Amino acid sequence: MLTLVDSYSVSAKHYDGAYASMKNLTDAPFYIELAKQSGGPVLEIGCGTGRVLLPTARAGIEIHGMDNSGPMLEVLKEKIAREAPAARDKVTLHAGDMREFRLNCKFPLVTIPFRPMQHMCTVPDQLRALSTAAAHVADGGVLAFDVYYPKFDRLLHGIGEEILEAEWQPPATPDIVVRRYFRKEAVDKINQVSTLTFVFRSYRGDQLVQEENETLKMSFYTYPHLRALFSLAGLEPVVEYGSFAKAPLDNDAQEMIFILRPLHA
């Protein structure tokens, strides 16, 4: 029995408000299109609060969501309970660690959307996570995931500085404005890991009424690093993109997006 962990407890509370306010996110339509093409069922690894999972279910696709964050899954369960039965019945949730969980079924599409792979900060963990995903891909199926394309020219800039990323009003407290700030704390160039802090400040007018912080580590990848991981995990690319609009993966890319198949397929 896999145990939930109390991770991302602050982020889980603010996740939906923060990302709903970011109008430049274009990943969800990409993954929903893949889900429709696959016909389902889909396994989404690192489903969080359901930003991609729920629209997929509303599109009529059966989807299994897996996460190890208890706070994230609790938010998602509350949201699923408010969905219409047609969408609610399409969702199955699993608590698990993406490095080791195993289900007794395989899927025509496995996804790891919006960078859960960047929370794998060592090569052994990265390989275990990809191997877990590959183990759930059905014959003829594919694995899709994305990571950001690192901006090496900015890697060491701005350490210790706060950057305002998002601002929103929670529906339950319309007199409150929440602002999320990003602060880069440190960069480990050798192990390719950044340490960062999200700062959530809640204001009523000009008065600060609450401040919450959550620190996390994120890995960053080079393309050869990823290709080596794919080879070790028994995966090969079917197609690679540099954006969710399916631009080429080249020097202008902002993302690295892969659709892969197991080598035995």
- Indicate the mean pLDDT: 96
Q: Regions with pLDDT < 50 over 5+ consecutive residues?
A: none
Number of domains: 2
> How would a crystallographer describe the biggest sheet?
7 strands, mixed
**What string gives the helices and strands in order?**
HHEHEHHEEHEEEEEHEE
Verbal overview:
It is built from seven helices and eleven strands. It is α/β, with parallel strands linked by helices and 265 residues long. The protein has two domains: 9-149 and 221-262, Rossmann fold (3-Layer(aba) Sandwich), CATH 3.40.50; 152-219, S-adenosyl-L-methionine-dependent methyltransferases. The protein has a seven-stranded mixed beta sheet, sandwiched between helices. The protein has a four-stranded antiparallel beta sheet with strand order 6-7-8-9, with helices on one face. The longest helix is centred in the middle third of the chain and has 13 residues, at 123-135. The two termini are 30 Å apart.
Topology, please?
Elements: H1 9-20, H2 27-38, E1 42-45, H3 53-58, E2 63-67, H4 70-81, H5 85-88, E3 91-95, E4 107-112, H6 123-135, E5 137-148, E6 162-168, E7 177-188, E8 193-204, E9 207-219, H7 223-232, E10 235-241, E11 255-262
Parallel strand pairs: 1-2, 1-4, 2-3, 4-5
Antiparallel strand pairs: 5-11, 6-7, 7-8, 8-9, 10-11
